[in-house]
Amino acid sequence: MVHGLLFVVYTDRIIMGRELVRLISARRATKFEEMLYLGE
After folding, report:
1. Which residue range(s) make up the domain with 32?
2. How many domains does the chain have?
3. Would 33 be classed as within a structural domain?
4. Domain assignment of residue 14, yes or no
5. Which tens digits make up the pLDDT trace of 6-20?
6. Inter-residue contact 28 to 6 (CB < 8 Å)
7. 2 with 31: CB under 8 angstroms?
8. Is residue 1 part of a domain?
9. Fewer CB atoms near the end CB (10 Å): N or C, the chain?
């Protein structure tokens, strides 16, 4: 059973030789997205 599945949008960046992760958006996944993730 899944509790609190998140849908996250992010981007990877390399700035001055350092890898950075920029979080763009995070929200609770819809029931449809949960079913896709679980393969149902």
Report:
1. 6-38
2. 1
3. yes
4. yes
5. 999 999 999 999 999
6. yes
7. no
8. no
9. N
The reported pLDDT for the residue numbered 7 is 94
Cβ atoms of 38 and 14 within 8 Å: the answer is: no
Query: What secondary structure does DSSP assign to 6-36, as a single string?
Result: EEEEEEEEEETTEEEEEEEEEEEPPHHHHHH
Distance between CA atoms of 33 and 1, rounded to whole angstroms?
Answer: 14
Lookup: tokens for 18: 């350092």
Interior angle at CA 4, CA 12 and CA 19, nearest 5: 15
Please tell me which residue, 9 or 38, carries the higher pLDDT value. Answer: 9
Listed in sequence order, the residues at least 6 apart from 4 whose beta carbon sits closer than 8 Å to its beta carbon are: 28
According to DSSP, residue 4 is labeled S
